[in-house]
């Protein structure tokens, strides 16, 4: 009889073989994602697809591209909302943007932008601070499907009450409804907000830098990676930030425990804003 420890070891072997197969056949590298996250998403997919083992899922994935799409979607992190953590955006508004207003071009990168809620939040904030016209916002995600949704700038109307509250808590200066038009069961944000936004597919764990930026937002992405992959992404971020550039992370993320911890000073500890110093 297989004991619990042996079962856990076999599950890990199966998962590692699955990830290796996905990498070698499809080119998607999830091998350095946090194991607990990967395991949880895989077993959720097993249950959903009525499969009995990880090996059975591997067979399906290697011979059925549609199953690979389902796995890819399961590994994509798409939890977001407009002005999520309003105090983070308030700090951006009050303490970061004023230091960049004299820049002829303010380049901003949202890594892992998902369906775009925080990107449009950024555009609204920049508009209210009078710098949207001089901003270039790059919004990237590994998942091309969510990027297509982000380009539309359309969100469920039932979310607007919550988003409006977030907006005002973040220091919003106008009626939030001025930025969108309601249509059926969704709202569509005005097109002027995305005139300086470039949406593009990009894998921060594998791809190279796309420019030099004054601000990089990478929130709640690193927590899904193991230590090795976190360091690789931090290398990309460091090389992509301009001198004295700003980095915004998620509540549970740090730079001090990575190889690049000494390259930043803490700009706002509560809201996880950092500034590049070397």
UniProtKB/TrEMBL annotation:
Which part of the chain is the CheR-type methyltransferase domain?
3-255
Q: Which residues cross the membrane?
A: none
Q: Name the SMART domains for this protein.
A: MeTrc
Name any one GO molecular function.
Answer: S-adenosylmethionine-dependent methyltransferase activity
Recite the UniProt keywords alphabetically: Methyltransferase, Transferase
Q: Specify the domain of life of the species encoding this protein.
A: Bacteria
Which chain positions lie within coiled-coil regions? none
Q: Kindly give the Pfam families that the UniProt entry links to this protein.
A: CheR, CheR_N
Question: Which PROSITE patterns does this one have?
Answer: CHER
- What InterPro entries does the annotation carry? Bact_Chemotaxis_MeTrfase (IPR050903), CheR_C (IPR022642), CheR_MeTrfase (IPR000780), CheR_N (IPR022641), SAM-dependent_MTases_sf (IPR029063)
Biological process per Gene Ontology, one example term: methylation
Xref: PANTHER family: CHEMOTAXIS PROTEIN, CHEMOTAXIS PROTEIN METHYLTRANSFERASE
Entry protein name:
Protein-glutamate O-methyltransferase CheR
- Native source species: Bacillus taeanensis
The root-end lineage is: Bacteria, Bacillati, Bacillota, Bacilli, Bacillales
């Amino acid at each position: 009889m297989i004991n619990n420890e042996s079962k856990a070891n076999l599950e890990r072997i199966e998962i590692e073989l699955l990830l290796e197969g996905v990498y070698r056949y499809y080119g998607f590298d999830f091998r350095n994602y946090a194991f607990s996250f990967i395991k949880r998403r895989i077993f959720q997919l097993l249950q959903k697809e009525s499969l009995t083992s990880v090996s059975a899922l591997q067979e399906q994935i290697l011979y059925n591209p549609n199953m690979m799409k389902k796995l890819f979607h399961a590994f994509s992190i798409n939890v977001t909302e407009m002005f999520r953590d309003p105090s983070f955006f308030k700090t951006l508004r009050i303490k970061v943007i004023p230091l960049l207003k004299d820049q002829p071009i303010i380049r901003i990168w949202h890594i892992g932008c998902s369906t775009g809620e925080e990107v449009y939040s950024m555009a609204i904030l920049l508009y209210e601070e009078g710098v949207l016209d001089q901003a270039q916002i790059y919004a990237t995600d590994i998942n091309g499907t969510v990027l297509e949704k982000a380009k539309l700038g359309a969100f469920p109307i039932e979310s607007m009450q919550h988003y409006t509250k977030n907006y005002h808590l973040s220091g919003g200066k106008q009626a939030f409804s001025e930025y969108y038009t309601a249509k059926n069961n969704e709202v569509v944000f005005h097109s002027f907000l995305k005139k300086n936004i470039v949406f593009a597919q990009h894998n921060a764990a594998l791809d190279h830098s796309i420019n030099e930026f004054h601000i990089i937002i990478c929130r709640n992405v690193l927590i899904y990676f193991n230590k090795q992959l976190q360091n690789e992404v931090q290398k990309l971020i460091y090389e992509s930030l301009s001198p004295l550039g700003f980095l915004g992370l998620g509540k549970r993320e740090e730079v001090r425990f990575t190889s690049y911890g000494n390259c930043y000073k803490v700009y706002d500890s509560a809201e996880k804003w950092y500034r590049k110093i070397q």
